[in-house]
């Protein structure tokens, strides 16, 4: 349920690197994980007892940020399965062939990169901007964090006792991290951005 590097290793949030709690490391969470979605819903349910009037979603804790700003990616099984579906749904067979994908049903981005000579997290990071399908992978991560944010906004508003304003801490100047969706009422960037 955490992001994995190209070589299958979990990685920590850089700003919590080396920290631990009860023997657990602060690994980067994959927004594709069903367990993460369940956790977010649990948190919203707790907040709705208040009653909730404003919900702030921290979009930074997503596979989009792990991919774009830290160049680790999210090669977890949930992310890879979803990326295959994304490619199949977004591109025609001819477009996929042009991209080097002859059999989208069996497409595996990890194997695709391995076959192109990118094996490790270091390979991925050092060649980030020239990786095959990196623009498609970044777009996929960005669109899916938007979908998750929309889903959580809908969930928060479901059976709510009052109107709920939803905001995100998504930067508005970065197209690969911005969560521009109609379910969001306001944007609040972090001061360090």
In short:
This protein has 193 residues and is mainly α. The chain has seven helices and three strands. Strands 1-2-3 form a three-stranded parallel sheet, with helices on one face.
Give a quick set of tags describing it.
mainly alpha, 193 residues, 40% helix, globular
Task: Give structural notes.
- The chain is mostly helical.
- 40% of the residues lie in helices and 5% in strands.
- It has 7 helices and 3 strands; from the N terminus they run αβααααααββ.
- The protein has a 3-stranded parallel beta sheet, with helices on one face.
- The longest helix has 24 residues, at 134-157.
- The radius of gyration is 18 Å and the shape is globular.
- It starts with 33 loop residues before the first helix and ends in a 6-residue tail after the last strand.
- 29% of the residues are buried.
- The mean pLDDT is 88.
Order of strands, main sheet, comes to 1-2-3
Number of DSSP helical runs: 7
The portion of residues forming beta strands comes to 5-15%
- What's the average pLDDT? 88
Largest beta-sheet details = 3 strands, parallel
Contiguous low-pLDDT stretches (5 residues minimum) are none
Give the overall silhouette. globular
Order of helices and strands: HEHHHHHHEE
User: Helicity level, as a percent range?
Assistant: 40-55%
What's the gyration radius in Å?
Answer: 18 Å
Which structural class is indicated by helix and strand composition? Answer: mainly alpha
N- to C-terminal separation?
A: 27 Å
**How many individual β-strands?**
3
């Amino acid at each position: 349920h955490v992001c994995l590097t190209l070589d299958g290793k979990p990685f920590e949030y850089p700003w919590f690197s080396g920290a631990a709690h009860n023997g657990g490391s602060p690994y980067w969470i994959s927004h594709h994980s069903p367990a993460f979605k369940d956790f977010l819903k649990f948190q919203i349910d707790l907040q709705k007892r208040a009653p909730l009037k404003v919900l702030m979603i921290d979009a930074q804790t997503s596979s989009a940020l792990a991919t774009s700003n830290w160049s680790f990616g999210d090669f977890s099984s949930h992310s890879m399965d979803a990326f295959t579906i994304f490619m199949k749904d977004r591109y025609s067979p001819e477009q996929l062939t042009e991209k080097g994908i002859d059999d989208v049903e069996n497409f595996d981005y990890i194997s695709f990169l391995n076959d192109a000579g990118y094996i490790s997290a270091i390979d991925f990071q050092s060649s980030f901007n020239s990786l095959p399908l990196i623009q498609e992978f970044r777009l996929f991560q960005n669109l899916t964090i938007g979908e998750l944010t929309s889903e959580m906004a809908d969930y928060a508003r479901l059976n709510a006792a009052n109107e709920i304003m939803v905001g995100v801490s998504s930067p508005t100047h970065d197209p690969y991290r911005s969560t521009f969706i109609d379910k969001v009422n306001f944007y609040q960037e972090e001061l360090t951005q």
